[in-house]
Every structure is written in C-alpha cells, then in structure tokens.
Amino acid sequence: MLAFANIVTNRFLPNWAYVPWNVGVGVGIIWVARHEVTLTEMGFTRWRRGLQWGAALFGITGLVLLVGLALPLTHDMFHDKRVAASEWAWFYHSMIRIPLGTAFLEETAFRAVLPALLAVRWGVVRGCVGASALFGLWHVLPSLGLHRVNPTITNLVGTGAGSTVMTVLLAVCGTSATGLLWCWMRYRSGSILATMLGHVATNSIAYTIAFWIAP
Q1: C-alpha distances out from residue 161 to 142, 144, 164, Å
Q2: Integer Rg of the chain from CA
Q3: What is the predicted pLDDT for the residue at 167?
Q4: Residue 165 located in a structural domain
Q5: What is the DSSP secondary-structure string of 115-171?
C-alpha cells in the first residue's frame, strides 16, 4: 500500500489531492494493521504524555532551526526554489499540507504501523530499524532533482553525472537516521503524537524560514 501510494503521490497525483489522498492512505493502513496489532502497540494512546513530549520537541526543533539560520555555514540550506511567494501558499503548506498531508501519513506509517507490525516478528529494536530503513527508501522519489533547487545540496554534490545518485543517497541515509531517532522518541513517549508534532515542527518551521528569506 505504501509503495503504491508513494509512486502515485510523486508521479501522478495533482497537488489539490495531496492532503486527502495521504490522510486516506494513513487511515487505511491503520485499519489494515489493526488485524495484527492494537492501537496501543501502534502508539495511538497516552495523548497527554505525547503532547508533553511533542511540545518539547517542537520548541527544541524551532530553536535548532533558528540557530541554523543564523550560522553562515548552514544559512543557505533554507534557500529553496520550491517555496511559493504568496502568504496563502505559505499558510497552506505550513498549516495544512505538511501537518495533514506529510506528518500524519509518515508518522502513522513509519513510527506507528510498521514498527508495531515488524516488532511482532522481530522485536522492537529490529522493528524500528526496519521501519526506519523503509522511511529512507520512501524519500527516493521526492529527492530526485533536489540538488537543482537547493544551493547547499548543489554545492555538496555538484551538478555532474553522479549528482542525482549522491543526492538520493544523502536523502535516504539522512531520513533513515532521523527515522530511527524518532522511533526511539515514539516508544519513549508512548505516543505517536510526540513525533507527529516534532515532524510538523521540522517541516513547517523550515518552510516558514525559507518563505521569510526568499528573495
């Protein structure tokens, strides 16, 4: 289901359908997974603790991103040609598309459903490793061409024949490592809400900063 959804999203889906499609996929995989694991095993409980962890993650993430903006070494990472110029586009992407279309599906899939299903067979640690590796592969299609829109990635991998391969490898390795860290946070907090809020902070705050500094 996720492999099919990934191809549809990145190759065929119109922009207006991104949010309802991803919400539908997220709900669908929860429904399928409930035949094997419980909502508690997937982390859809302990909302108060999840909110506490999520609020802390949100604040820490925002601070780290602002420090990154202030440092010359990482400042250019926030320049992205895909960021739209209008206030409505900023609102839609940071407040609707990212929280509902991106964070909800990815956290549901790779920090709730897949770790719980794989843990039944392999145990929690190997389940998290497997889910995080799949989270890395999930970013193969979205990372194609990333070096053409972000100057930091361009400077890192260049524009030669192997630049696309290097970009994809960096994206897969980086998101796999991030996924493993967030899996730990999800199990430590006991709630998927914690990493959902952390994910929203990472993407939405970064998008907001990119919008602010766009020429």
Answers
A1: 19, 13, 7
A2: 17
A3: 83
A4: yes
A5: HHHHHHHH-HHHHHHHHHHHHHHHTHHHHTTGGGT-HHHHHHH-SSTTHHHHHHHHH
Structure tokens at 19: 């949010």
For residue range 53-68, what is the model confidence (pLDDT) as tens digits? 999 999 999 999 999 9
Select from 213, 204, 192 the least CA-distant residue to 49.
Answer: 192
Asked if residues 162 and 23 have their Cβ atoms less than 8 Å apart, the reply is no
Q: What digits encode the pLDDT tens for the residues 89-103? A: 999 999 999 999 999
Q: Residue 198: CB partners within 8 Å, gap ≥ 6?
A: 54, 57, 58, 61, 182, 185
Q: By C-alpha distance, which of 204, 199, 196, 183 is closest to 51?
A: 196
* Amino acid letter, residue 37: V
* 200 is a domain residue: yes
Q: Please check whether residue 111 is in contact with residue 127, taking contact to mean a CB–CB distance below 8 angstroms.
A: no
Which range marks the domain in which residue 105 is found?
Answer: 44-213
Q: Is the dihedral of CA 116, 183, 111, 41 positive or negative?
A: positive
From residue 104, alpha-carbon distances to 2, 78, 86, 120 in Å are 13, 23, 25, 23
Domain tally, the chain: 1
